[in-house]
Protein backbone atom coordinates (compact mmCIF):
# COMPACT_ATOMS: atom_id res chain seq x y z
CA UNK A 1 0.00 0.00 0.00
CA UNK A 2 0.93 3.67 -0.40
CA UNK A 3 0.36 4.84 3.24
CA UNK A 4 2.32 7.92 4.38
CA UNK A 5 5.34 7.50 6.57
CA UNK A 6 7.39 9.90 8.71
CA UNK A 7 10.66 10.78 7.08
CA UNK A 8 13.60 9.02 8.61
CA UNK A 9 15.44 12.35 8.52
CA UNK A 10 13.03 14.24 10.85
CA UNK A 11 14.32 14.99 14.33
CA UNK A 12 13.71 17.27 17.35
CA UNK A 13 15.99 19.91 18.89
CA UNK A 14 19.13 18.71 20.53
CA UNK A 15 19.78 19.49 24.17
CA UNK A 16 22.53 21.92 23.18
CA UNK A 17 20.17 23.83 20.90
CA UNK A 18 17.52 24.06 23.63
CA UNK A 19 20.07 25.35 26.15
CA UNK A 20 21.37 27.98 23.70
CA UNK A 21 17.81 29.16 23.02
CA UNK A 22 16.99 29.36 26.73
CA UNK A 23 20.21 31.27 27.31
CA UNK A 24 19.29 33.85 24.67
CA UNK A 25 15.80 34.23 26.16
CA UNK A 26 17.34 34.69 29.60
CA UNK A 27 19.69 37.43 28.37
CA UNK A 28 16.84 39.28 26.64
CA UNK A 29 14.67 39.00 29.76
CA UNK A 30 17.47 40.30 31.97
CA UNK A 31 17.79 43.32 29.68
CA UNK A 32 14.09 44.14 29.28
CA UNK A 33 12.29 43.07 32.47
CA UNK A 34 13.94 45.66 34.80
CA UNK A 35 13.12 48.41 32.30
CA UNK A 36 9.50 47.30 32.08
CA UNK A 37 9.24 47.12 35.88
CA UNK A 38 10.72 50.61 36.24
CA UNK A 39 8.35 52.01 33.62
CA UNK A 40 5.39 50.45 35.42
CA UNK A 41 6.55 51.87 38.77
CA UNK A 42 6.83 55.36 37.28
CA UNK A 43 3.30 55.13 35.87
CA UNK A 44 2.06 54.14 39.33
CA UNK A 45 3.87 57.09 40.95
CA UNK A 46 2.21 59.47 38.47
CA UNK A 47 -1.24 57.93 38.99
CA UNK A 48 -0.98 58.07 42.78
CA UNK A 49 0.25 61.65 42.64
CA UNK A 50 -2.80 62.64 40.57
CA UNK A 51 -5.06 60.90 43.07
CA UNK A 52 -3.53 62.77 46.02
CA UNK A 53 -3.77 66.07 44.13
CA UNK A 54 -7.50 65.52 43.63
CA UNK A 55 -8.17 64.30 47.19
CA UNK A 56 -6.26 67.14 48.83
CA UNK A 57 -7.91 69.85 46.76
CA UNK A 58 -11.32 68.46 47.62
CA UNK A 59 -10.45 68.16 51.32
CA UNK A 60 -9.23 71.77 51.57
CA UNK A 61 -12.35 73.02 49.78
CA UNK A 62 -14.60 71.12 52.21
CA UNK A 63 -12.59 72.31 55.24
CA UNK A 64 -12.91 75.95 54.13
CA UNK A 65 -16.67 75.60 53.81
CA UNK A 66 -16.85 74.60 57.46
CA UNK A 67 -13.85 76.37 59.06
CA UNK A 68 -13.30 79.36 56.80
CA UNK A 69 -10.06 80.29 55.06
CA UNK A 70 -6.87 78.68 56.32
CA UNK A 71 -5.53 82.02 57.59
CA UNK A 72 -8.33 81.93 60.21
CA UNK A 73 -7.49 78.46 61.53
CA UNK A 74 -5.20 79.76 64.27
CA UNK A 75 -2.00 78.23 62.87
CA UNK A 76 1.50 79.44 63.72
CA UNK A 77 4.69 79.22 61.66
CA UNK A 78 6.33 75.80 61.47
CA UNK A 79 9.28 74.51 59.49
CA UNK A 80 10.42 77.91 58.24
CA UNK A 81 14.06 77.36 59.19
CA UNK A 82 16.42 74.49 59.91
CA UNK A 83 15.74 72.90 63.27
CA UNK A 84 19.11 73.88 64.66
CA UNK A 85 18.21 77.54 64.04
CA UNK A 86 15.01 77.35 66.10
CA UNK A 87 14.56 77.35 69.85
CA UNK A 88 12.95 74.36 71.55
CA UNK A 89 9.86 76.47 72.20
CA UNK A 90 9.57 77.42 68.51
CA UNK A 91 9.98 73.80 67.43
CA UNK A 92 7.34 72.62 69.93
CA UNK A 93 4.89 75.35 68.85
CA UNK A 94 5.45 74.50 65.20
CA UNK A 95 4.73 70.81 65.80
CA UNK A 96 1.52 71.66 67.63
CA UNK A 97 0.44 73.87 64.76
CA UNK A 98 1.13 71.13 62.19
CA UNK A 99 -0.88 68.72 64.37
CA UNK A 100 -3.73 71.25 64.40
CA UNK A 101 -3.66 71.48 60.60
CA UNK A 102 -3.96 67.70 60.20
CA UNK A 103 -6.55 67.49 63.00
CA UNK A 104 -8.75 69.71 60.85
CA UNK A 105 -7.94 67.84 57.63
CA UNK A 106 -8.61 64.43 59.22
CA UNK A 107 -12.34 65.05 58.91
CA UNK A 108 -12.06 65.27 55.13
CA UNK A 109 -9.39 62.65 54.38
CA UNK A 110 -9.41 58.91 55.08
CA UNK A 111 -6.49 58.36 57.45
CA UNK A 112 -5.38 55.04 58.88
CA UNK A 113 -2.89 56.47 61.37
CA UNK A 114 -1.36 59.67 62.74
CA UNK A 115 1.69 60.41 64.83
CA UNK A 116 2.41 63.44 66.97
CA UNK A 117 5.67 62.95 68.85
CA UNK A 118 9.22 61.97 67.96
CA UNK A 119 8.66 58.67 69.75
CA UNK A 120 5.49 57.84 67.80
CA UNK A 121 6.58 58.81 64.31
CA UNK A 122 8.38 56.27 62.14
CA UNK A 123 11.28 57.74 60.20
CA UNK A 124 13.21 56.49 57.19
CA UNK A 125 16.18 57.89 55.22
CA UNK A 126 15.47 60.46 52.53
CA UNK A 127 17.45 61.40 49.47
CA UNK A 128 17.27 63.99 46.73
CA UNK A 129 16.67 63.27 43.03
CA UNK A 130 20.41 62.86 42.41
CA UNK A 131 20.85 60.66 45.48
CA UNK A 132 22.15 63.25 47.94
CA UNK A 133 21.31 62.10 51.47
CA UNK A 134 19.14 64.54 53.40
CA UNK A 135 18.09 63.43 56.89
CA UNK A 136 14.88 61.45 57.32
CA UNK A 137 11.27 61.49 56.22
CA UNK A 138 8.71 61.22 59.02
CA UNK A 139 5.40 59.39 58.58
CA UNK A 140 3.15 62.08 60.03
CA UNK A 141 -0.05 60.92 58.34
CA UNK A 142 -0.83 57.65 56.57
CA UNK A 143 -3.81 57.74 54.23
CA UNK A 144 -6.05 54.76 53.55
CA UNK A 145 -4.41 54.04 50.16
CA UNK A 146 -0.92 53.89 51.70
CA UNK A 147 0.11 57.42 50.74
CA UNK A 148 2.21 59.10 53.45
CA UNK A 149 2.45 62.74 54.46
CA UNK A 150 6.12 63.04 55.36
CA UNK A 151 6.49 66.76 55.91
CA UNK A 152 4.40 69.89 56.48
CA UNK A 153 5.55 73.47 56.73
CA UNK A 154 3.54 76.54 57.67
CA UNK A 155 5.62 79.27 56.04
CA UNK A 156 3.14 82.02 56.81
CA UNK A 157 -0.11 81.46 58.74
CA UNK A 158 -1.54 84.60 57.10
CA UNK A 159 -1.30 82.72 53.79
CA UNK A 160 0.05 85.60 51.75
CA UNK A 161 3.28 84.10 50.39
CA UNK A 162 4.09 84.58 46.68
CA UNK A 163 6.57 82.37 44.80
CA UNK A 164 5.56 82.86 41.20
CA UNK A 165 5.33 85.28 38.32
CA UNK A 166 1.52 85.18 38.20
CA UNK A 167 -1.28 84.99 40.75
CA UNK A 168 -1.18 81.18 40.42
CA UNK A 169 1.46 81.11 43.18
CA UNK A 170 0.15 83.87 45.40
CA UNK A 171 -1.65 83.59 48.74
CA UNK A 172 0.16 80.43 49.81
CA UNK A 173 0.48 79.13 53.38
CA UNK A 174 3.22 76.51 53.19
CA UNK A 175 4.22 73.12 51.82
CA UNK A 176 3.10 69.50 52.03
CA UNK A 177 5.50 66.64 51.27
CA UNK A 178 3.82 63.44 50.06
CA UNK A 179 5.36 59.99 49.61
CA UNK A 180 3.08 58.27 47.11
CA UNK A 181 4.18 54.70 47.92
CA UNK A 182 4.71 55.00 51.66
CA UNK A 183 8.06 54.07 53.13
CA UNK A 184 8.86 51.72 50.25
CA UNK A 185 12.00 52.70 48.33
CA UNK A 186 13.45 54.66 46.65
CA UNK A 187 12.26 57.50 48.97
CA UNK A 188 13.67 60.22 46.72
CA UNK A 189 12.15 63.63 46.13
CA UNK A 190 11.11 63.80 42.50
CA UNK A 191 10.69 60.02 42.19
CA UNK A 192 8.18 58.84 44.80
CA UNK A 193 8.18 61.92 47.07
CA UNK A 194 6.74 65.22 45.83
CA UNK A 195 6.14 68.73 47.16
CA UNK A 196 2.94 70.78 46.96
CA UNK A 197 2.24 74.32 48.05
CA UNK A 198 -1.10 74.79 49.78
CA UNK A 199 -3.36 77.77 50.30
CA UNK A 200 -7.00 78.75 50.31
CA UNK A 201 -7.41 77.70 46.68
CA UNK A 202 -6.14 74.18 47.42
CA UNK A 203 -2.79 72.60 46.58
CA UNK A 204 -0.44 73.59 43.75
CA UNK A 205 2.41 71.30 42.65
CA UNK A 206 5.88 72.77 43.06
CA UNK A 207 7.93 73.34 39.93
CA UNK A 208 5.26 74.87 37.68
CA UNK A 209 6.47 76.87 34.66
CA UNK A 210 6.10 80.10 36.67
CA UNK A 211 7.47 78.84 40.01
CA UNK A 212 10.33 81.17 40.91
CA UNK A 213 11.27 79.22 44.03
CA UNK A 214 11.71 75.61 42.96
CA UNK A 215 12.29 75.90 39.22
CA UNK A 216 12.09 72.78 37.08
CA UNK A 217 15.51 73.41 35.51
CA UNK A 218 17.38 73.66 38.82
CA UNK A 219 15.27 71.51 41.15
CA UNK A 220 14.31 68.62 38.85
CA UNK A 221 17.54 67.78 37.09
CA UNK A 222 19.78 64.78 37.80
CA UNK A 223 22.85 66.72 36.65
CA UNK A 224 22.48 68.98 39.70
CA UNK A 225 23.80 67.74 43.02
CA UNK A 226 22.13 69.23 46.07
CA UNK A 227 19.79 68.09 48.81
CA UNK A 228 16.74 69.98 47.47
CA UNK A 229 17.00 68.44 44.01
CA UNK A 230 13.60 66.93 43.17
CA UNK A 231 11.58 69.69 44.83
CA UNK A 232 10.62 71.04 41.39
CA UNK A 233 9.27 67.83 39.82
CA UNK A 234 5.65 67.52 40.99
CA UNK A 235 4.09 69.85 38.40
CA UNK A 236 5.93 68.12 35.56
CA UNK A 237 4.67 64.67 36.56
CA UNK A 238 1.08 65.89 36.85
CA UNK A 239 1.17 67.80 33.56
CA UNK A 240 3.40 65.62 31.35
CA UNK A 241 2.58 62.27 33.00
CA UNK A 242 6.18 61.08 32.80
CA UNK A 243 9.40 60.98 34.83
CA UNK A 244 11.64 61.33 31.78
CA UNK A 245 13.79 63.85 33.64
CA UNK A 246 15.38 60.77 35.23
CA UNK A 247 16.94 59.88 31.87
CA UNK A 248 17.88 63.19 30.21
CA UNK A 249 18.69 66.69 31.46
CA UNK A 250 17.49 68.87 28.59
CA UNK A 251 13.73 68.84 29.20
CA UNK A 252 11.89 72.13 29.66
CA UNK A 253 8.40 73.59 29.90
CA UNK A 254 8.81 75.39 26.59
CA UNK A 255 10.86 72.82 24.68
CA UNK A 256 11.61 69.11 24.81
CA UNK A 257 9.14 67.13 26.98
CA UNK A 258 10.31 63.53 26.45
CA UNK A 259 13.74 61.93 26.28
CA UNK A 260 12.86 59.77 23.26
Question: Could you please describe the fold and organization of this structure?
Answer:
The chain is 32% helix and 17% strand. The chain has four helices and eight strands. It is α+β, with helices and mostly antiparallel strands and 260 residues long. The chain has helices at residues 15-67, 88-105, 216-219, 234-240, and strands at 111-114, 123-127, 133-138, 141-143, 148-154, 172-179, 193-199, 202-205. The relative contact order is 0.12. The strands form two sheets. A six-stranded antiparallel β-sheet has the order 1-4-5-6-7-8. A two-stranded antiparallel ribbon has the order 2-3.
What is the strand arrangement across the widest sheet? 1-4-5-6-7-8
| Number of strand segments | 8
N- to C-terminal separation?
65 Å
Given as residue ranges, the uncertain stretches (5+ residues, pLDDT < 50) are none
Helix fraction, binned, reads 25-40%
Strand content: 15-25%
**What do the pLDDT scores average to?**
88
Shape: elongated
SSE order, as H and E? HHEEEEEEEEHH
Counting H and I runs of at least 4 residues, what is the number of helices?
4
Q: Structural class from helices and strands? A: alpha+beta
Q: Main sheet, how many strands, which sense, barrel? A: 6 strands, antiparallel
Radius of gyration: 25 Å
Show the helix and strand layout.
Elements: H1 15-67, H2 88-105, E1 111-114, E2 123-127, E3 133-138, E4 141-143, E5 148-154, E6 172-179, E7 193-199, E8 202-205, H3 216-219, H4 234-240
Antiparallel strand pairs: 1-4, 2-3, 4-5, 5-6, 6-7, 7-8
In short:
With 260 residues, this protein is an alpha+beta fold. It has helices at residues 15-67, 88-105, 216-219, 234-240; strands at 111-114, 123-127, 133-138, 141-143, 148-154, 172-179, 193-199, 202-205.
Amino acid sequence: GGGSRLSSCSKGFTLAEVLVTLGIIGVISAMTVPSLMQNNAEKQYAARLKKFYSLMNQAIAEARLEKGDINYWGLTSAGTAADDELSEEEIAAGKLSVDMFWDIMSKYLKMTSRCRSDEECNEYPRASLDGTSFGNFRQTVILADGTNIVGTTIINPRCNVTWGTTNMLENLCGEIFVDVNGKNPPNKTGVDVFIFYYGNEGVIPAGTYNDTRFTFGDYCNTSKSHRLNGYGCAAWVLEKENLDYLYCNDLSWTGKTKCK
